[in-house]
Amino acid sequence: MEQDVRIASLGLAGTLTLPPGFRAVVLFAHGNRSGRDSPRNRHVAAALRAAGFGTLLFDMLTPEEAQDRTNAVDAHLLAERMLLATQFLCDHPAVGGRPIGYFGAATGAAAALIAAARAAEHHHVRAVVSRGGRPDVAEVWLDGVAAPTLLIVGGEDHTVLEVNRQALNVLHGIKALDIVPGAGHLFGEPGALDAVAESAAAWFDTHLTP
Q1: CATH number, domain at 158?
Q2: Can you give the pTM of this predicted structure?
């Protein structure tokens, strides 16, 4: 099942796709002014659906908000939108209370981590995957992330790799750093995004589904 949805009173546009027999739903957080049509996240989302997960990709900003570049890098604003979308999934009858995971990229990864920390007491978010993320932007919220967290970074993305290594030391509980050899920040090299999708699917398979 694939349907266009509107999230919260803001009317944020999204695409909810629930394959037959799906076990959980992964909510995507975009970065760098991307939206639900981000080709990289759509690539990963398709692979996750093939592995038995539902996906929700949505525009985290209204068209008016997207005109201001600062909103696209405001991790706390984006985290608020993640929480709205999480509540949307919790209330959606077709989701049926199945587990929810987060997949975030760039600044969206920081937003996903902040939202996961804020939702920890409600146990809504069961697992988090970050692709080329900036977990340092999550600042003090990193310490509150309880969900098992996988950080995926390109081996040639040296600055972001160092940031993620430092974040790994701050995160508690189940955590891992997966380095994709030869990949840059956008994982545009042949096979790099497939490696990301494979790692994400394996992480969600282990930590998201009962």
Answers
A1: 3.40.50.1820
A2: 0.95
